Request: fold
Amino acid sequence: MAETHDLVIIGGGPAGLTAYLYAARARLDCVLVEKTSPGGQVLVTDLVENYPGFPEPLSGFELMDRFVAQVKKLGLQTISGEVVRLEIEGERKKIVFDDGRVLQAQAVIIATGARPNRLGVPGEEEFLGKGVSYCATCDGPFFRDQEVAVVGGGNTAVQEAIFLTKFAKRVYLIHRRDQLRAQKILQERALANEKITILWNRVVEEIFGQDQVEGVRLKNVKTGETETLKVQGVFIFVGISPQSEFVRGVLPLDERGFIITDCEMRTEVPGVFAAGDVRAKACRQIVTAAGDGATAAFMAEHYLSQK
Reply:
């Protein structure tokens, strides 16, 4: 017999933890599924400055530690493992794990978030962990007094470039356009930082080296000219892709793979909801993920009460 619950929440980031908070307060029989540790991608964020109620910046780890502590007071139940398939059998939903385990539920909230995109250039896979990284907070200290490149122009890229100046002697911010997409306050900080050099209108064509990263080959998208930049590390922040493979063919996805919902987090399958970065929406922030989680749990409670 498969283990059965009223509600299964898949994903333990801000959306999943908030959903659990609201579901537990509604006294639903719920369980949180997380393949690593609760907290999600926020755990590796250096500083969070825009979460309401915290006028002083705090680390992503500290913020999520508070999320987890609050939910634990309500008796957090977790199951570790990676979900590979969602099956719909009438009103019953089956959550299938990679090791063959199965959970059953009347309602499901999917809050699996998103992961960093790859550049897809030669050398990226070869030097992963040997100078190529997708997490400045994790790997920045390894590049003390060295020169590194950051690829991207959004909030994450600029914020992580600023963070890396704590360790690196020079940070090259490589952006394919002639202006950044990050929030103005982050742009101002980057432009004012003496350790940051912005290379406009350039893309990375190759990451090269022997046993470790030794540099990147760049192409100017306006002139077509190529150049070599010697760096010991390459940090890549060029967007995200949703972790939604396990529902492909079961739930409607947009062209990028994000789960389509209405404003109340409902998918087209009754009793299945999506929240946070895995959902198709315009703004992906910690605060919006938490709001999605609260709404999803409220609607899941409403759905279950009608059964």
